[in-house]
Amino acid sequence: MLTCRRAIGAAVVFIIMLFLVTHSHSHEPTIKHLILKHGSLGNDANTADKPLKVELTPTGGGSARMGGGKSVQKPLVDMKRAPLREKLAYQFPYDLESKFPAYIWQTWKHTPASKDFGELLRPAEASWSEKHPGFIHEVITDQVAVHLLRHLYASVPEVLQAYHALPLPVLKADFFRYLILLARGGIYSDIDTHALKSAIDWLPESVPKDKIGLVIGIEADPDRDDWAQWYSRRIQFCQWTIQSKPGHPVLLEVVANITLETLKQLESGKLDAFRTKTGGVIEFTGPAVWTDVIFDYINDPRYFDMATGKGNITWREFTGMNSPKRIGDVVVLPITSFSPGVGQMGAKDYNDPMAFVKHEFEGTWKPENERHIKPKKR
Ligand SMILES: *[C@@H]1O[C@H](CO)[C@@H](O)[C@H](O)[C@H]1NC(C)=O
Ligand SMILES: *[C@@H]1O[C@H](CO)[C@@H](O)[C@H](O)[C@H]1NC(C)=O
């Protein structure tokens, strides 16, 4: 027990040191309030080869909700009483022009050094290191996660309270990916997911990386009338693999959403009832809320100049895509990229040049049916 504790302690200290070394940035907010214009979306080929006309217009004051920019002159503001979203924006400023951090984050019950890690998972875990030399690759255990989050979110105690209150491991695992990416950025990928292609090659050459802050894939694009029987959304973005820069507004919003919803349910005593409810995970922390938050963001006039667009962006813009599509600072990869080999919904096979990761849906080690509604033919 003692040695186990000591090992965890050492791991935490190591990770924290790593951050201090690699992230010795001051807390001077570098938030840039950007209006990302999207014009007409055009077709796949158009957006991939000839990126959308996206103008980035820094607008001094910023809006009230994302007002981190306002504190430039006053770096020592007391944020304790600020609304949650403002606190998060202050703590984790988004710098669009920064590089994608070279981190790979995964979580699992055991460290890769443990004999209990799981033989089936080893090749998947190893594939990330092999494909990403020079990246820092961390498999964070549940115990280490607690310490790490306490360090990263010390000044936003609501988030920690919500994390601890979540009643199921799967909810915590979902929440953790958003929390680590908001705070540190990089790639998050589920432990049962193989890297097929280095993230260096995920985006087409033509896409300027200093104008992209979030890379996501499609989990489901069920083009059938009865889609609602199988999926929670007509287009469902996946959250088993995500790449982002720290502070991305989508991550900020999903963290704020889950924190506020959790605390609300905690207060009303409904959180315990959650244990017995099925399907709730998808809406609460899973792909449904993730998808909703992304659509809200790309339709948000605070970030996007809607005047030049043709109305709201909906699932129609992403159905049947064969190449990446860029909307402002978000790149949506086609279904083949993160869900190859599923044999449906237009997904191509693992050897397709657009296949980037292989997610093991059939793993028996996590309640997959809690996470995704399964399509009929599988
Ligand atoms: C969280 O997102 C859902 C959409 O999935 C929305 O209905 C809900 O109101 C949001 N909650 C908060 C507190 O923002
Ligand atoms: C567009 O989306 C926004 C945000 O989701 C929503 O408030 C608005 O009502 C939508 N407008 C239309 C025309 O559907």
From TrEMBL:
Listed Gene3D superfamilies: 3.90.550.20
A GO biological-process term: protein N-linked glycosylation
Keyword Transmembrane helix: yes
The entry's keywords: Glycosyltransferase, Golgi apparatus, Membrane, Signal, Signal-anchor, Transferase, Transmembrane, Transmembrane helix
Pfam families referenced in this protein's UniProt entry, alphabetically: Gly_transf_sug (PF04488)
Ranges that cross the membrane: none
Gene Ontology MF term list: alpha-1,6-mannosyltransferase activity
Membrane topology qualifier: Single-pass type II membrane protein; Single-pass membrane protein
Subcellular location: Endomembrane system; Golgi apparatus membrane
Main location: membrane
Domain of life: Eukaryota
Classification via SUPFAM superfamilies: Nucleotide-diphospho-sugar transferases (SSF53448)
Signal peptide: 1-26
One GO CC term on file: mannan polymerase complex
Database matches in PANTHER family: INITIATION-SPECIFIC ALPHA-1,6-MANNOSYLTRANSFERASE
Family assignment from sequence similarity: Belongs to the glycosyltransferase 32 family.
Name of the featured protein: Glycosyltransferase family 32 protein
